[in-house]
Amino acid sequence: MADPWPLELLSKQQGRILNVRFDTGESFDLEAEYLRVESPSAEVKGHGPGQEQLVHGKRNVSMTRLEPVGTYAVRIIFSDGHSTGLYTWNYLAKLGREHEVIWSAYLEKLAKAGQTRG
């Protein structure tokens, strides 16, 4: 399967939702909170296995700006100041395709850590 190519990225609901439409025919509405807690940045993912950080308290975060990065990604600037994640087209497609599994795993980790979405 060829890598997905975005046809459109659209910020909706005052930066609360990112709609991504791909040339594969797929379209995903990705919540800002979900994008923030799953940021591909080293701050969130770490520099290797086991270094991931659990991000919490981001229920009310929004996207304030989208910046293209070359032809391969978008940088999302969030209302909490986070801006270091580069969301590749493949990563955005993965977040859309695997939303239920990824989100459920995140909520489980939050509960185990005694944290909330805030």
Structural features, described:
With 118 residues, this protein is of the alpha+beta class. The chain has one domain (6-113): NE0471 N-terminal domain-like (2-Layer Sandwich). It is 29% helix and 29% strand. The protein has helices at residues 32-37, 42-45, 89-97, 99-113; strands at residues 6-12, 17-22, 27-31, 63-69, 73-78, 86-88. A hairpin with a 4-residue loop joins strand 1 and strand 2. The termini are far apart. The relative contact order is 0.21. The mean pLDDT is 95.
Treating each run of at least 4 consecutive H or I residues as one helix, how many helices? Answer: 4
Query: Helix share of residues?
Result: 25-40%
CATH architectural group: 2-Layer Sandwich
Q: What's the arrangement of strands in the largest beta sheet?
A: 1-2-3
Q: Strand content of the residues, in percent?
A: 25-35%
Instruction: Supply the helix-strand structural class.
Output: alpha+beta
Distance between the termini: 39 Å
Enumerate the spans where pLDDT stays under 50 for 5 or more consecutive residues. Answer: none
Give average pLDDT, whole number. 95
The coarse silhouette is globular
Number of strands: 6
Keywords:
118 residues; alpha+beta; NE0471 N-terminal domain-like; three-stranded antiparallel β-sheet; 29% helix; 29% strand
